[in-house]
Design goal:
four-stranded antiparallel sheet; single chain; 219 residues; 0% helix; mainly beta
Length: 219
């Protein structure tokens, strides 16, 4: 790859990843891409072992989260020297009344994954900077690598939204909208491999009368 490569990480330099098929002596030849040459055509060549690594970044810091609702965030990863494996991201230390999607996995070969941070209907506005801790874990060459990721910064409680949506476990004949408080346990939906489960998708309108559409990510 060079300066017209899709990743554009190495400026005008060129790079090639090479795995030797067997032990032996190998010749490296550097030439101009157009076949030109001359005394002023000088090159510096570096040959080194690939050091696979990664760097994860949280996008969506300092979120404002409406009570009873959520705010989306995302993780992006810079994959270094050919690392293509899964990366699992854990979030902890959110203020009381706030929860987030965790763990989140950036799957092998992918560069991003999304999540949401939610606030209970009776959550209080945090007084201080968030003490959240975000860590990313991956296996590189058979070794577990754990890295710190930037946290959420200042989390604020927003205004009550005009539309609140919940995805709840299915209980027959129970369709009333229930707003979850800080003191209540998180709802869980369990599904076995090869099976399906019904769920309730509920909306509570407080001034929003338009059509509501949905997408599902990160399954």
């Amino acid at each position: 790859s060079n300066d017209d490569g899709g990743e554009r990480k190495i400026g005008s330099d060129s790079r090639v990843m090479f795995t030797a098929p067997a032990s032996g002596n190998y010749l490296i030849r550097v030439t101009d891409s157009l076949g030109r040459s001359g005394e002023r055509f000088a090159y510096r060549l570096t040959v080194r072992e690939a050091k696979q690594d990664f760097k994860v970044t949280l996008n969506g810091v300092n979120p404002t989260v409406p009570p009873g609702s959520g705010q989306e965030f995302s993780f992006t990863v810079d994959r270094i020297d050919g690392f293509e494996g899964d990366i699992q991201i854990e979030i902890s230390g959110l203020p009381p009344g706030f929860v987030a999607s965790t763990p989140i996995v950036i799957q092998a070969g992918h560069f991003a994954a999304n999540g949401s941070v939610f606030a209970a209907v009776d959550a209080k506005n945090p007084d201080e900077m968030s003490q959240t801790k975000v860590t990313a874990t991956a296996m590189i060459n058979g070794k577990k690598v754990v890295q710190d990721v930037n946290n959420f910064g200042k989390i604020k409680l927003g205004e009550k939204p005009k539309l609140i949506v919940t995805l709840d476990p299915y209980v027959e004949n129970e369709t009333n909208f229930v707003e979850r408080s800080v003191s209540e346990k998180l709802l869980e939906i369990t599904i076995a491999p090869g099976q399906t489960v019904p769920v309730w998708l509920k909306v509570k309108r407080s001034g929003h009368e338009e059509r509501v559409t949905f997408t599902v990510e990160n399954l």
